[in-house]
TrEMBL record:
Protein name: HTH cro/C1-type domain-containing protein
Organism: Kribbella yunnanensis
Domain HTH cro/C1-type: 34-88
Matches recorded under PANTHER family: HTH-TYPE TRANSCRIPTIONAL REGULATOR (PTHR46797), METHYLPHOSPHONATE SYNTHASE (PTHR46797:SF1)
Protein's UniProt keywords contain DNA-binding: yes
Amino acid sequence: MTGWDEVRGRRMGEPGAEVAYDAARRAFELGAAVRTMREERGWTQTRLAEAAGMTQSALARFEAGGTIPTLALLERIAQAFEARLVVRFDVGDSAA
């Protein structure tokens, strides 16, 4: 029987694995940030989804890190929160 660490080590050695892992990490972090903002406001997923012009199930997938959002979607979510979307590049160590 193979343990998770061994499987992960093998998979991370495959071509493109690190890029895919980074994309999944970013999707998870964005979803978590939106969920935190939503919960701080006491909003339900349904309320935010309606305000952002999306379905509750799509928002749930996004918050769980299951989808990589477009900039247009992030902008709609920011507008729903009456917030400003800020995208920037930081020079330095990789976030991985």
